[in-house]
Every structure is written in structure tokens, then in C-alpha cells.
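Job type: complex structure
Entries:
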Amino acid sequence: MNDTVQVIKVGIADMNIVRTPYHIRTSGLGSCVGVVIYDQGKELAGLAHVMLPDSTLAKGGAFNIAKYADTAVKELVNRLLKNGARDYSLKAKLAGGAQMFQFSSSNDMMRIGPRNVEAVKRELAAYKIAIVGEDVGGNSGRTIEFDPKTCLLHIRTVNKGVFNL
Amino acid sequence: MSFLEKISTVHLDVLKEVGNIGAGNAATALSTLLNKKIDMRVPKVRVVSFDEMMEMAGGPENIVASVFLRIEGDAPGSMFFVLSLEQASTFIKEMTGDSQFSFEKLPYDEIAMSALQELGNILSGSYLSSLSDFTKLDLYPSVPALSIDMVGAIISYGLIELSQVSDFAIVIDTALDDDDYNGPKSVKGHFFLLPDPDSFEIIFRALGVTENE
């Protein structure tokens, strides 16, 4: 990895797609899930920073589709297909869904990390997209960066260092 | 949606006062605990996007020590006490007398973590009880949880309730300065209070401000 690569940043509850030579990155995933869907042959990849499992949780009218697992995966797949990805060659990698704080509280919202992971997997299965790599759960934050050329997902955590998936 | 559309400068001033009273008491508690002078900045109340909220605490990848607690009772919400690692280790050294402590060594020392958690407990407890006195609302803190990690990973936890309703947060931010600290002069700690969406109306009503003011 050389230092001059251009990195597209994705914020919280946000999504974007990139082609080689760009990398795509999102920082500080806690209970949120970063899902990368890519077509290696086309060197095209999309990343969504998902915050909540299900858009039916949305209270009020208009909502941000990148925020929810169900709507984000759908929109990401649509955008990739529109940009020339082939649906049969789409694969996915995901990271995040940590339990940052341990609470005895029965509040379901505190289990949001695992619920986000389950929801993203359910959506990917509905589109028959294979998950080729995942680093989910645990209790540490993650920063992830994806290179659509090598299709490696670079994961950095505070306590467990750096590795590629 | 609704509370953001209706919010006025009067409402923001009320929330600023909430931050002032809460953090003022917490700063006094901290000052007593450490027997030194602590400066508090005038609270800022801002309506921010989630990304801007991360920037307020130093950016999503910035590593911090944070105590998080849920507020239960009449006006639920989330509260964070965020410290830079330098400041957290200064506090730990002063409380435990262990001058060797460092965040570089893993795993973290158990006594040190317990001291830091207790510090957060005392400070957020005094913040909350003064808030409760001021508003006459029943507010109970959950047992505080400590985490040393990236800002993005920590703060997003407090945004979960809000994120179901809106893409913006109203955050009451009070920054603390430590006078004795010899390093570069910058903000050393933050209190972030993030009321749940439905709590704003309850807080305003308790303070005699009507929603359409």
C-alpha cells in the first residue's frame, strides 16, 4: 500500500462506492456495522456504515436509507449494479457490531451491535451475496479500509492492532 | 423530527443553563476530589449531525477514555464524560499514587481502571443530581461503564435512541480545563449530555418553558 492512494471517507450512517485506484474507508465503528460489497473483476466496491438494524424502527417520515441495514444493503447493491457490477459476482465483507459497554440493563437497544450484524447478514442472504470475510462482535472499535483491486479489508483496532481480512 | 423543527433560541438558552448547572457541580466535585483548581468553559449547546458530533470530541478515530451512563427516570438520555488519554492518566496517577501508570501497557491496571470509573461515577452523579434538583425531575443514573477506544465507536452508542428519529443530535457540551497541567493548553475533558428525543419536551415543561415559545 503506498502513501499516495486516494481514500474516499464514509461517515456515520453514510455510504459510497469506489473504483480502483481509490480506497474506501470508514472510521470508528462501534455497534455500527461496516459492510463492503464488491465485484473483484470490475474492481468496484461499495461501503455502507449501518447504524440500526431495521428501517421499521424509523419514527417519522423521511429517513436516511444508509442508516438502516435493510435499506442500505438494497441501495448499495442497486448503485453497484448501475455502475457496471455483475450481480452474480458480488461478494461481501463486514466488520463492526461490537458491544462497547457491558450493561445489565434489559434494554434491547443496548444489544444493538449483534442485532445490526444479524440484520446485515439477513439482507445479504436475501440477495444471495456470499460473505467471504467478517470480523464482528467483541468489544472494541474498528476502523476499516477496503481496496477494490486486492479486495483486502484492512482493519485497525485500538487494543488488537492491525490486520487484513 | 418535531423537537428539532420547533426549537428556538430560548430553548437553547435553557439547555445551556442545564449544562451550566450540571457541569458546574461536577467540576466542583472534581476539584474537591483532586484538591486542585478546575476551570470550566461556558457550555455550548449545538444542533449537530452525527459526524459533527464525533468532530467535537476530536474526530472518530481519536482514542479517548470515556465513562458512559444511561439516564433513566422522567427524562431518559445518555451522558458521556470524555477525557484525553493524557488527562485520564494524570487523574489516575493522582488518585492511585501510581506514578508508573501508562495506557501503553496492556492489559490496563485493574486498580487504575476502577479509579477512573469511580471518577466518572462521582462526576456524572453530581451532574445528574444537580440537574434533578434544578428540574424537580426524577433522574437515575445507570451503573456507569468505562471504555477506552475510538470516539466514533463510543459516542455512536449514545446516538442510538436519537438516530431512530433524526439525523441530528442536540448536544450539551461542557469542556473542562486543568490548570496545573503543564502540557499544551487545550481542552482536557468534555461532558456530553444527549437527552432522548421525547425528553426535551419534559425538560422544557419542568422548567416552565412551553414548547412553542
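Summary: Strands of chain B lie at 38-40, 44-49, 63-73, 77-84, 139-141, 145-150, 168-178, 189-195. Chain B touches chain A at residues 1-2, 50-51, 54, 59-61, 63, 68, 70, 106, 142-143, 145, 147-154, 156-157, 159-161, 163-167, 197 (CB under 8 Å).
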